[in-house]
Structure formats: C-alpha cells, structure tokens
Amino acid sequence: MSPPAPAVRIPVTSIDLEDTHRLIPARYSESGTVLSRLTEDTRALDDLLELDGATNDRLLGELGLLPGIGVHELVYGVDYAHIVNAAFTHAAPEGGRFNSSDRGAWYAGLEREVSLAEVAFHKRRQLEEVNWQEGEIATFDDYLADFTMPAHDLTAGRSQFRKYLRGEPIPESYAEPQKLAAKLLTRQSNGILYPSARRAGGRCLVCFRPALVYNVRRGKRLQFALRAGEVFNVRHAKEIAVR
Hints:
This protein is of the alpha+beta class. It has one domain (16-240). 23% of the residues lie in helices and 26% in strands. Strands 1, 2, 3, 4, 5, 6 and 7 form a 7-stranded mixed beta sheet that branches. The chain is globular and about 45 Å long. The protein starts with 11 loop residues before the first strand and ends with a strand. The relative contact order is 0.20.
C-alpha cells in the first residue's frame, strides 16, 4: 500500500492592496434592492421588502438565520454594508472557485481588466447554457475595496497548485479549490491571492471575512456587449454615466 501523498503547503503572504475591483450587476446598486423600481409608494415598497425578506439570503444572514455564516461576521454601519454582506450570503447554488453554496466570499481583481474578463466569461457561459443567440448588453458597477492582511498565496506557479486553478469544466473544476478553501477557513485563513483563469498574467483575491473588506466605494459604471460563442475583448467595455 502506497503512503498518502504529502499535504500541499500554501505559503502565506502579507498583502497591502488598494483599489481592487469587484464588478456587480448595476441593478443591485439602486437603494439596495431592485424592488425600488416597481413602485414609488413607500408603503407598497415596505410590503414588497417584507415579502422579499422572507427569501432574501442577505437579510436572513443579517438575522442570523443562515447556516454558513454567523450574524456576528457581517458588517453594519459602514458604507455599502449591504453590498459586502450580499457577497457572503448570496452564494451560487454550485458555489464559486473558493466557496461552497453555504457561504459566499468577496472576489476581486487586482486590475479592472481582470474583473471584466472574469465576469464576461461567466456571463457568456450563462448565455450559452440557455442557447441564447441574441446579443446581450451587460451593465456592471465597479466596487473598489482595499485589503491589508495576511493571505494564502497561490501565485507562485507551483505544479501542486494547478488543481486549484483549472479554468474548465465548471463546476467540476471547483471541487478541489472548494476543498482547499474549507480547510483554510477552519484554520482562520483570511483569503487567497491567486492567478486569474480568464486573463493571462492577471491576479485575483478572494476574501473570506466581511470585516476585512475595507473602504468600499462605488467606482465607474461599465457596459459591454456579449454574444454566445464570441470572444470578449476587455477594451470593448465603456464607462457610462449613472443616472
């Protein structure tokens, strides 16, 4: 019987990053809820919000009703707290590269072009999955944040790290990095610095702790066109005015 493979050791590095970029669909920026588009009647909006709150994971998380993240971990009384909390409470059904469906995380690109490449890839995948052949206009807000913390570092290019950084197939390629993230979470990891799978030479950060997403502010609104099966060029994204 062969001995077990040695555990992969992930180095820890101290990061001091300013102006990282997280792109979020612009519809989520308005009053913290898309329901504000449906009515200008305050009483009617309150009724809609109460109904939405029964199934809104961010609101449930802020009430301590989600199993994957405790209410004491979320942030309150700071700018864009609802944007930060939503990142950790609205996990995708299949999770992300470094998070499961039980607990979200804050993903950001160190450069805006990296974030554009990442979100465009996933948006285009959605179009392909539903066989949508028409062009699609996507509008995102760029949320900037700063980070000063120790983080695990996968940017060294070691062969042992490749299984955590595979680009395809999704969600199968997330199995190993999600296992890694679960282990690191139990060891009080703050997050992971890693190479982008969608833009060569780009780097991304995933932060596991809401309180470490610092100085969040809304930057530019960006718009770009996508079509299933077509290669996206980040230079085609344009800044547009926020109405």
